[in-house]
Specification:
Elements: H1 4-8, E1 13-15, E2 25-29, H2 31-36, H3 41-44, H4 47-53, E3 65-67, E4 71-73, E5 76-78, E6 86-93, E7 99-105, H5 122-137, E8 144-156, E9 160-170, H6 176-189, H7 199-211, H8 221-246, E10 248-249, E11 271-272, H9 296-311, H10 323-359, H11 369-386, H12 390-403, H13 416-430, H14 436-442, H15 450-461, H16 466-476
Antiparallel strand pairs: 1-3, 2-8, 4-5, 6-7, 7-9, 8-9, 10-11
Bound molecules: adenosine monophosphate and magnesium ion.
Length: 505
């Protein structure tokens, strides 16, 4: 195990130790992921393996640290957040040579815990396991759950709940909040912001080397940092386009939960929409709907603007000098940042357009966009008005394309107020000659629907792991309609009611 992050950025890495788990017991283990990381799944199930996965057996070369970062939470800035209940053990390499952080969540209080207890409950950690497994299988960049280990102790939430530690992997835990912290520390220290050898520049160099090596080829340093900004903007734009296409609502898109790698991170109050509704919002604490389903692209753009602000001292050449020069320099840096941020709409717009066409079985390179564009837009408007089940609608388009008829989808528009529009839409779409296989490859049969996740987590909290294991199996092959898994493809029963997710994770 290596500790490249802690070595390169000691100011962001506080050496710390996990709290021992009283009676560790394996709840989940991704054996394929373990093997890819060079870890023996059989060993991970032994007592030593469980101590490793809960942080008390520190392997050779590892140097556990709590990471410090800042962040905007629901728009309000916190200058010092950090891992309050998490530790970075170090990095491992996958078989194909990629560096992966190994990180524990729920491993005890750290100096960043503020009023938190440093712990995590079984339910939310298994939820991260289920949903991140699904996202990976759906082809969405994401952190991954290696294991969930019960600690054998209770954690106090509204009621006492069994505690657990999640071991997760990520291509790194660098976030927009890491850059906000570094920029603020430098600005407050009297040092020249962005100076060679300083924290901000070292952080940016680390991020380039680790995630966006193409930026290193961009020329002089300022051009490289501009390229870093552009790469992160593009990676986040592509990521959020995938979320929107799949109906995923992250729920807590704070800048400390916005990665530099472009991976989805921190599955707290997340949810998949059932009924299509751009304003769908599930989190109990997101009362204003700031992070609602359809607002996610705008929020991602806002978060990236915070990233650009943090990078400002690096975006133009030349050292700090007299005040006039500094002001002119800042103006130029802002112009560079603004231009890079404009890339978000371009990349998001194109990723979304290509993706939504594919969902309809259409290839943007082969259709006349002047004709297909309105067909796409009209379906989105129709789906919103009819509140039709998102996953079911798109999956059925494959069947409709194969049959050359609207029979598979029209029953979803039973409401007389929209039925006529739906009937008029089908022939316009079929005239574009949709490809059923393309639609099937794009539209999952199974996503981790909220009622299924809740049902499985409730059982696991009560000691029965079978429903979680079955759900993980179901979401691991999301594009296949498998016999025996029919109920995983069905919308929530009406009795499930409105869904609320809780951040008290
Ligand atoms: P999140 O929104 O889950 O990414 O967490 C936001 C911040 O709160 C991070 O700094 C976490 O480390 C911290 N945090 C969340 N839950 C706890 C807890 N139970 N104990 C300590 N810190 C926590
Ligand atoms: Mg977080």
């Amino acid at each position: 195990m290596t500790h490249a992050f802690a070595d390169a950025l000691p100011e962001l890495a506080l050496p710390w130790q996990a709290e021992p788990a009283a009676a560790p017991a394996q709840l989940a283990l991704d054996e394929a992921l373990a093997a890819d990381l060079g870890l023996d799944p059989a060993w991970l199930r032994t007592d030593d393996g469980l101590r490793f996965l809960t942080g008390t057996l520190v392997p050779e070369g590892a140097r556990p640290v709590a990471q410090v970062y800042a962040g905007h939470q629901f728009g309000g800035y916190s200058p010092r957040l950090g891992d309050g209940r998490a530790l970075l053990l170090g990095e491992l390499r996958t078989r194909d040579g990629q560096l992966r952080d190994l990180h524990l969540k729920g491993s005890g209080r750290t100096p960043f815990a503020r009023s938190g207890d440093g712990l995590a409950a079984v339910g939310p950690m298994l939820r991260e396991h289920v949903v991140s497994t699904a996202m990976h299988a759906l082809g969405v960049p994401t952190t991954r759950a290696l294991a969930v280990v019960a600690t054998g102790s209770d954690v106090q939430r509204e009621v006492p709940l069994p505690g657990a530690v999640l071991a997760r992997t990520a291509s790194s835990h660098l976030r927009v909040g890491s850059f906000q912290y570094a920029a603020a520390v430098e600005a407050g220290s009297g040092a020249v912001p962005g100076a060679p050898g300083g924290l901000l520049r070292r952080l940016a160099d680390h991020a380039i080397a680790r995630h966006h090596p193409v930026a290193a080829q961009a020329g002089p340093p300022a051009a490289q940092y501009r390229a870093l900004l552009e790469e992160v903007v593009a990676a986040q734009a592509r990521l959020v386009a995938q979320w929107v296409l799949l109906g995923f609502v992250h729920g807590v898109m704070n800048t400390d939960n916005t990665t530099i790698s472009g991976e989805t991170i921190d599955y707290g109050p997340c949810a998949f929409i059932d009924a299509y509704d751009p304003l769908a919002s599930f989190s109990s604490i997101d009362t204003g709907g700031r992070y609602a389903y359809g607002r996610q692209p705008g929020i991602a753009e806002w978060n990236l603007a915070r990233f650009a602000e943090a990078l400002l001292p690096l975006l133009v050449e030349g050292g700090a000098g007299q005040q006039d020069d500094d002001a002119a320099r800042t103006d130029r840096a802002v112009a560079v940042a603004t231009e890079a941020l404009e890339g978000f709409r371009v990349v998001f717009g194109s990723a979304f357009a290509v993706g939504v066409h594919r969902k309809l079985g259409l290839d943007t390179r082969a259709v006349d966009r002047a004709v297909s564009g309105p067909v796409v837009d009209d379906l989105l408007a129709l789906a919103a008005d009819a509140r039709v089940d998102h996953t079911t609608l798109y999956r059925r388009l494959g069947d409709a394309a194969r049959a050359g008829s609207g029979d598979a989808v029209l029953p979803l528009f039973a409401d007389p107020a929209v039925r006529g529009r739906a009937e008029a839409w089908v022939p316009r779409w079929l005239a574009l000659r949709p490809d059923a296989e393309l639609a099937d490859r794009t539209n999952p049969v199974v996503v981790p629907r909220n009622h299924l996740v809740e049902e499985a987590l409730a059982a696991a909290t009560a000691g029965d792991l079978a429903p979680v294991e079955r759900l993980v199996d179901a979401v691991s092959r999301p594009f296949e309609a498998r016999a025996g898994f029919e109920r995983y493809a069905e919308p929530a029963p009406a009795s499930f009611g409105d869904y609320t997710t809780f951040c008290g994770t």
